[in-house]
């Protein structure tokens, strides 16, 4: 399902005055497409991802999922509706993996499925499939501490995709990995996004990670840089 934002501005009030973390950012990501958001520290990447995922709200502008009759304006929903939409339709991959140390890989992947109310048999099967997709079929019983960083992030990716979301959001998913592992994890994200037809937005500092993108959006001081479109077309599209 298509994910888009239109003319999004986010202003934070701080004791030192107002900070405009995003200024008039527009983008659209199609199903099966990987958009990488890059830019220096403080450019607004995390702020943009939080707004796209409905964790935060724009000060002005809108975020929409889907098109036509299926169109939902995420930024117009209340807190509960946004939380429900996140649980059902958005998968999130964290920089620090976000796994629960005392649970096995399988149990970690099952968490969102349990929250979504899936039956134990179904979620066991679904989690197993997701772990197989990320190449961890032989590691389902291991706990995060018994897995390498790259394997832990694969569990994080399996968990994000196990619920078959429409949208995948990842904030610096390779930030804690060495460059070779990071490249493999980005290849995996790219391949899964294409095969699952998920609209994906990945924020990263890593220029190599950006090579896996279908399109790149560069942010500087909260502004999308013109002419940063990469293979596949325009990074910034207006509806
Ligand atoms: N809750 C907040 N309150 C006040 N200012 C904030 C808040 N969140 C972010 N900012 C400010 O907004 C700007 C953008 O921050 P953001 O975290 O989105 O950048 P980033 O590109 O993700 O940086 P990094 O690569 O270091 O994670 C920064 O100037 C930051 O200080």
From TrEMBL:
GO terms for molecular function: ATP binding; ATP hydrolysis activity; transmembrane transporter activity. It comes from the Bacteria. SUPFAM superfamilies: P-loop containing nucleoside triphosphate hydrolases. Residues 3-239 form the ABC transporter domain. Keywords: ATP-binding, Nucleotide-binding, Transport. GO terms for cellular component: membrane protein complex; plasma membrane. SMART domains: AAA. PANTHER family: ABC TRANSPORTER RELATED (PTHR24220:SF685), IMPORT ATP-BINDING PROTEIN (PTHR24220). This is Putative ABC transport system ATP-binding protein. It comes from Serinibacter salmoneus.
């Amino acid at each position: 399902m298509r994910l888009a934002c239109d003319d999004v501005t986010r202003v934070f009030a701080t004791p030192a005055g107002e900070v405009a973390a995003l200024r008039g950012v527009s983008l659209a990501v199609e199903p099966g497409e990987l958009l990488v958001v890059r830019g220096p520290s403080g450019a607004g990447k995390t702020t943009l991802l939080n707004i796209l995922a409905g964790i935060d709200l724009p000060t002005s502008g809108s975020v929409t999922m889907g098109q036509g009759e299926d169109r939902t304006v995420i930024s117009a929903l209340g807190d509960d509706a946004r939380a429900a939409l996140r649980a059902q339709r958005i998968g999130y991959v964290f920089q620090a993996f976000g796994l629960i140390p005392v649970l096995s890989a399988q149990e970690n992947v099952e968490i969102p499925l349990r929250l979504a109310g899936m039956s134990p048999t179904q979620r066991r099967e679904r989690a197993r499939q997701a772990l197989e997709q990320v190449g961890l079929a032989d590691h389902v019983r291991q706990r995060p501490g018994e897995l390498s960083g790259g394997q832990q992030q694969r569990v994080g990716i399996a968990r994000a995709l196990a619920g078959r979301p429409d949208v995948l959001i990842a904030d610096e998913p390779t930030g804690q990995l060495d460059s070779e592992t990071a490249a493999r994890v980005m290849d995996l994200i790219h391949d899964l996004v294409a095969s699952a037809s998920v609209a994906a937005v990945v924020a990263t500092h890593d220029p190599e990670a950006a090579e896996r993108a279908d399109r790149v959006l560069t942010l500087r001081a909260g502004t999308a840089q013109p002419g940063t479109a990469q293979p596949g077309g325009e990074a910034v599209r207006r509806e």
